[in-house]
Amino acid sequence: MESILAKALGQDVSQLAAAEKRDLLSRLLGRLAHEVRNPLSSLDIHVQLLEEDLASLAPQMREQLAPRLEIIHGELHRLEGIVQRFLRLAGPAGVDLELVEIPRILSHVCELLRPEAAAREIEIAARVDDSLPPVMADPVRLTQALLNLLINAIQAVERKGRVEVNVALTDGVVCVAVSDNGPGIPPEKLAAIFEPYYTTKSEGSGLGLWIAQQIATAHGGSLQAQNGPAGGAVLTMRLPLKREGASG
């Protein structure tokens, strides 16, 4: 991440805290996405106008130019996809909070991933504190974060293993711990796994944990990684039961 920021900003960022680097990179990616989107929209409009102009040409000429226009459309669509990815990397600008039941969301996520896990002979187990109350959260964002965490765990195990999710309430903070019995994370890489495009696995894009951390932060919480005492990795998302400044 430091090399990305140093090249973009032309300055040394090695002394900044990890959270400051992530925030700086998020804002940089968001700004870049918006800067690219403006000329991209203009190009799209002018391609449409060009197509209208070409309609007056002879059929033979239109047939000759059609494949080239198709390529242009395809490349514009691909660039729009890159812009969307940058915007997702920039992190959620805000969250739409409502009272949500984490056990229900977790159950939904587990059911979505069980077929893939079963194909790999991986067991998914979930344990939730019975006293857990509803939490103020964005259900869509929270579902995305939990999906990313479980997919990461499944990919870490690869085949024939176990992924476990434990949800508990501790001192007004909801702790969602996703553990696996995979190879674990090299100690020197524990902080780096949250950097965009970084991955220690053969699968995945290296964006899942970055996005999950952005979502946790947008909720006023955090996401941390460690190795379990018996091996494997443990990723723990902490969400405040009540956000500071919230009424009630």
Textual characterization of the structure:
By secondary structure, the protein is α+β, with helices and mostly antiparallel strands. 50% of the residues lie in helices and 18% in strands. The strands form 2 sheets. The protein has a 5-stranded mixed beta sheet with strand order 2-4-5-7-6. The chain has a two-stranded antiparallel sheet with strand order 1-3. β6 (222-227) and β7 form a beta hairpin. α4 (102-119) packs parallel to α5 (139-157) and α5 packs antiparallel against α6. The longest helix is centred in the first third of the chain and has 37 residues, at 18-54. Residues 7-13 have low confidence and may be disordered.
Nutshell version of this structure?
The chain is α+β, with helices and mostly antiparallel strands. It has six helices and seven strands; from the N terminus they run αααβαββαββαββ. It has two domains: 2-89; 98-240, Heat Shock Protein 90 (2-Layer Sandwich).
Secondary structure layout:
Blueprint lengths: L1 H8 L8 H37 L4 H31 L8 E3 L1 H18 L2 E7 L6 E3 L1 H19 L3 E10 L2 E8 L27 H11 L3 E6 L5 E8 L8
Parallel strand pairs: 2-4
Antiparallel strand pairs: 1-3, 4-5, 5-7, 6-7
Helix pairs in contact: 1-2, 2-3, 4-5, 5-6
